[in-house]
Amino acid sequence: GEIDMAYDAMREHVRSRGGTDAVHLQYRKLLRMKSDTAELLRHGKEWLAILLGQDKEKTAVDVARELVELDPTFVPKDAESNTRLAQRAAALNQTQLALRLVNGFHKRHPKSADIPVNYLLAARILSERMGKDAEAKALLMQLKTAYPDHALMGDIDALLKIIDSTPAKKPA
């Protein structure tokens, strides 16, 4: 019942010695109880990098989702983390988070080799999970124009073929 004392002890422990995932989760629980959004964000960003470094991508996706809920502008700063989280979020059926992570990726990381990978992922999500074939097709056509010789061109063409062969849905 001594939230402030527990918070102080946990904060000191996590900052000085780190801790297991259970310790970090308990610390985050205390932060939520105290409504300490600033520390939740700071700790979440720091722990996210650690989780990715330890290949704990499922927990990292959970932390990323919470960070986006706390700060809708949040995205990982580096392209690799962003791509890994988007791919894993999509694999875990966290469609909105995956799309949020790839949205604007080319502007944040204009020289990244992951641009085609991320936007192909977005096109797949839009088409296969959301039924937004027109948006997916537009994205794929942009990829074809910008990256005509990319190794993913076969995958891009295959998805375009599927979209083109799908009958258009008529409004109810």
Q: What is the average per-residue confidence, as pLDDT, rounded to a whole number?
A: 91
Question: How many angstroms separate the termini?
Answer: 55 Å
Strand portion: under 5%
* Elements, N to C (H/E): HHHHHHHHHH
| β-strand number | 0
Q: Rough shape?
A: elongated
Structural class: mainly alpha
Task: Give a quick account of the main beta sheet: strands, pairing sense, barrel closure.
Answer: none
Please report the number of helical segments. 10
Which blocks of ≥5 consecutive residues have pLDDT under 50?
none
The helical percent reads over 70%
Rg, Å, rounded: 20 Å
Could you walk me through the main structural features you see in this protein, from its secondary elements to its overall organization?
The chain is mostly helical and 172 residues long. It has helices spanning 3-17, 21-33, 37-53, 57-70, 79-91, 95-102, 105-108, 115-129, 133-146, 153-165. The radius of gyration is 20 Å and the shape is elongated. The N and C termini lie far apart (55 Å). The mean pLDDT is 91.
